[in-house]
Amino acid sequence: MPLLPFGKESHLTRKAKELTRNDWVLAGLAALAEGGIDSVRVERLAKSLNVSKGSFYWHFSDRSDLLSALLDLWEKDFTAQLIANVASQPTPRARLLALAEEALDASMDGVDVAQAEGAFSAWAVLDPAAAVRVRAIEAQRIGYLVRELSLMGADTAQAELLAKGIYLALLGVFAARRYNPALAEDAVFRRIVALALDAVGGRRR
Amino acid sequence: MPLLPFGKESHLTRKAKELTRNDWVLAGLAALAEGGIDSVRVERLAKSLNVSKGSFYWHFSDRSDLLSALLDLWEKDFTAQLIANVASQPTPRARLLALAEEALDASMDGVDVAQAEGAFSAWAVLDPAAAVRVRAIEAQRIGYLVRELSLMGADTAQAELLAKGIYLALLGVFAARRYNPALAEDAVFRRIVALALDAVGGRRR
DNA sequence: CATTGTACATACGGTGCCGTATGGAATACT
DNA sequence: AGTATTCCATACGGCACCGTATGTACAATG
After folding, report:
1. How many domains does chain A contain in total?
2. Which residues fall within 8 angstroms of residue A105, CB to CB, at 6 or more apart?
3. What is the pLDDT of residues B162-180, one digit of tens each?
4. Which residues contact A143 (CB under 8 A, 6 or more apart)?
5. Surface of A (17-56) touching B: CB under 8 A
6. Which of B23, B33, B86, B156 is disulfide-compatible with B95, CB 3.0–4.6 A?
7. Strands (E), chain A
8. What angle do CA A197, B203, A155 make, to 5 degrees?
C-alpha cells in the first residue's frame, strides 16, 4: 500500500533502479493520455519501463488494479487542486477565468492533462466502473462552477445551464485537441467562457 | 464494389437471407456507436449477424476495408444531408437553430447518430487515417457555420470563433452523452447556440 | 553467515482476434 | 444437364495480451 516502502533507504542503498507502484501509475497515465485506455497494457508498459511483467504483478494484483489507481490519481490530484489554485483570486469572475486558463494549460509529470482528460472521458464510455468515478469528478467540477456563477448573481437554473455549457465546451476542447488541434484553439474556449460570464454578470464593454 | 450485385433478383429469388456488403457496414456502424471502434471486430460482427467470418472476408478484403466503408458512409450520408435539410429555412438564424435540433436528434437505421459521432471522434484520436477523414468532414461543418454566421453580420474572425465554439460544445455533447447523459442535456447546447447567435445578431428580448 | 523478504525475470497455458486456405451448397448460365 | 459463380462454413497458423507459477539476485536482518 505505501507508495515508498520505507522512505529513507529505498532508491539509494538499493540497486537504485527499482520501480515503485507509483512509477507504474505514472507510466500508465502517460500511456492513457497518449493512446487511450486500450494502450494501457501491462506488457507494453513493462517494455516501456525496461522491465518484465513480473515486476508489474508484484506491485499490482492485476490490470484493473492499475486502472483503479489511475482513477484514484485523477480524483485526488486534479479537480480539487485546480480549484484550490484559483481561490486567491478576488472575484468569482476572476476565479473562473483563471480556472479556464488552468484547464487549458495543466500538465503533470510531463503528461498533458488535457490529453489525459479526453482519454478519461473516452474511457468512461467503454467502462461503466470508470464512468461512475468520472461522473463523480465531473459533478464536483460542475458544482464548483455553479457556486461561482451563483455568486455572480445567476439563479439556480441559469447557473446550472451555463456551468454545464462551459464544461461541455471544455470536453469538446479536450476531445478535439487529440485529433484536430486547429479546432480546439484556446481562444475559442475563452470566447465561450466570456459569453457565459457576460450572460450572468451583465455585458462588459 | 456494387452494394447490391444486380438489384432485381438478389434477396428474393435467392435464399432470402444472404448478406450484402452494406449489411456489414450497418452492423459495423451500430457496433461503433455502441462500443467504439474497438468493438468493430469481424468475428464479433459475424456472431451478431449469425454468420461466419467466411462471409465477411468475401465482402471485404480485410478489417480496414470495413473501417474505410464506415468513413465513406459517414462522409456521404451525414453533414451534407443535414445541411440540405435546413436549407428551406428562411433566415441564417433559423437554419442554424434547425441544424442544432437536427444534430441533437439525428438517427440512422436505428443507430443514434450522436453516439456514433462521439465514437468517430474517439476513433480519430487513435487512428491517423481516420483523423484525416474526420477533420475533412468537420471542416465542411465548420465552414457552413461560418458562412451562415457571416450572413448574420459577423466578421470573419468573429464567425470562425463562434462556429468553432458551437461545434466544440456539440463535440462535448456527443462525448458526454455516452457516459454522463445528465451533463449533455439538449437545453445546455441550445443555450450555447443562443449565446453565440446573440453575440453576432444582436441581443434578442 | 545463514535466513528471510524484496523486486524482479522467465516460462507456460489460455483467450480473442486476424487473415488465409479450402471445401461445399445453392443459384445462374449455356 | 453440366459448369461456373456466388456466398458462406470450417479449419488452420499466428500474434498480442492476460494471469500464474516458479526461479533468482540482492538487500536487510538477526
Report:
1. 1
2. none
3. 999 999 999 999 999 999 9
4. none
5. 35-36, 38
6. B86
7. 107-108, 111-112
8. 40
Closest CA to B37 of B182, B155, B134, B169: B134
The integer distance in angstroms from the CA atom of A12 to the C1' atom of C5 is 18
Q: Are A100 and A13 in contact (CB under 8 A)?
A: no
* Owner of C-alpha cell 438478389: B10
- Considering the domain boundaries, does residue B3 fall inside one? no
CATH number (domain holding residue B170): 1.10.357.10
Spanning CA of B138 to C1' of C26, the rounded length in angstroms is 46
CA nearest neighbour of A83 among A102, A70, A110: A102
Cell of B154: 459577423
**DSSP character for B182?**
T
Torsion of CA A12, A14, A18, A21, to 10 degrees: -80
Domain presence at residue B5: no
Three-state DSSP class for A9? Answer: coil
Paired sense of beta strands A107-108 and B107-108, if any: unpaired
For residue A205, pLDDT beyond 70:
no
pLDDT band per the 50, 70, 90 thresholds, residue B108: confident
Predicted model pTM: 0.89
What is the phi-psi region of residue B78: left when phi exceeds 0, alpha when psi lies from -120 to 50, beta otherwise?
A: beta
* Rounded distance between C-alpha atoms, residue B21 and residue B36, angstroms: 20
* CA of A157 vs chain B CAs: smallest distance (Å): 11
A85 shares contact with chain B (CB less than 8 Å): no
Range of the domain at A143: 11-204
Question: Is B142 within 8 Å of chain A by CB?
Answer: yes
